[in-house]
Amino acid sequence: TQAHKSIRAKDYDVGPIIGLLVTILCGIVFFLVQVREYYWNSYTISDSVYGSVFYLLTGFHGAHVVVGTIWLLVSLARLWRGEFSSQRHFGLEACIWYWHFVDVVWVTLWCVVYVWFGGWLYMWWFKTWDGNVYSFKYPDAKPSWYAYIQEERVPSWYKVPDRLKI
């Protein structure tokens, strides 16, 4: 949006470039967080209906984020070459509309998959001063990441979870 406003206002200095760079960085960070989440999940696509729906919805959304990030990179290159002007910038505008659509889809997915079905409304994890992790709804339960932290002090990239081994 900031890049679009800068182009329409005939501000061709650094405004649109910074706007696109920040958005591209957000897309890359989102993708890396999603990959990390897939790696550390305690359930797989074949465990349950929730697992299947979770991986299907978030996987399709992640693919759309990758497509949008690539499109943003192409738009940044076109902007850098001076192909956009205040009168001629439909390619950038279409890219921005697509990115906002992906944003709205993510907010909806987060509300449905993580909050409603995932139990985040009831399972707020908190860590006490003694290092234990508790939940309001399930006092004896531990989050999926807790077991990995308590097992051993090996870097996450060093040990492959058993479910991913062939």
Give keywords.
two-stranded antiparallel ribbon, single chain, 5 helices, 166 residues, 60% helix, Four Helix Bundle (Hemerythrin (Met), subunit A)
Given the structure, what is the number of helices? 5
* CATH classification, class level of the largest domain: Mainly Alpha
- What would you report as the Rg, rounded to the nearest angstrom? 21 Å
Which class do the helix and strand fractions yield? mainly alpha
> Largest sheet, order of strands side by side?
1-2
Mean pLDDT: 73
Estimate nothing, just give the exact number of structural domains: 2
What is the CATH H-level superfamily of the largest domain? Cytochrome c oxidase, subunit III, four-helix bundle
The CATH topology of the largest domain is given as Four Helix Bundle (Hemerythrin (Met), subunit A)
Shape: elongated
**Proportion in helices:** 55-70%
Strand content: under 5%
The main sheet comes to: 2 strands, antiparallel
Q: Give the tally of β-strands.
A: 2
Low-confidence stretches: 121-127, 145-155
The first-to-last residue Cα distance is: 45 Å
Provide the succession of SSEs.
HHHHEEH
3D structure, described in words:
The chain has 166 residues and is mainly α. It folds into two domains: 2-116, Four Helix Bundle (Hemerythrin (Met), subunit A); 125-164, no CATH class. Helices cover 60% and strands 4% of the residues. It has five helices and two strands; from the N terminus they run H-H-H-H-E-E-H. A two-stranded antiparallel ribbon has the order 1-2. It is elongated, with a radius of gyration of 21 Å. The N and C termini lie far apart (45 Å).
